[in-house]
Specification:
3 strands; 3-stranded parallel sheet; alpha/beta
Length: 86
């Protein structure tokens, strides 16, 4: 069992996030959505939005129920209205 400071921080963060009742989440660089789905399942998040530059990965993420956007942080403005994810 891991008893490091890193593990303790992860546990505190996970508990804090669980208590926040998050309804929407943006995963920047979501890839295939695997991590997003873990968050959705643990935190009971209703809507997950994923952005990435990899079209093949986004296709996989969409199959997992993530609303995806092709996105390059260097050249594109976020596709959301102000306060959308709050």
């Amino acid at each position: 069992m891991e008893n490091t400071l890193s593990h303790q921080i992860k546990k505190i963060l996970a508990t804090y996030l669980y208590q926040q009742k998050i309804e929407r989440m943006l995963d920047m660089g979501c890839g295939d959505g695997t991590l997003s789905v873990m968050f959705r399942n643990y935190l009971n998040i209703k809507e997950i939005y994923g952005i990435d530059v990899d079209r093949k990965a986004l296709k996989k993420a969409r199959k997992l129920g993530i609303k995806t956007f092709i996105f390059d942080l260097n050249n594109t403005k976020l596709p959301f209205n102000n306060n959308f994810l709050i």
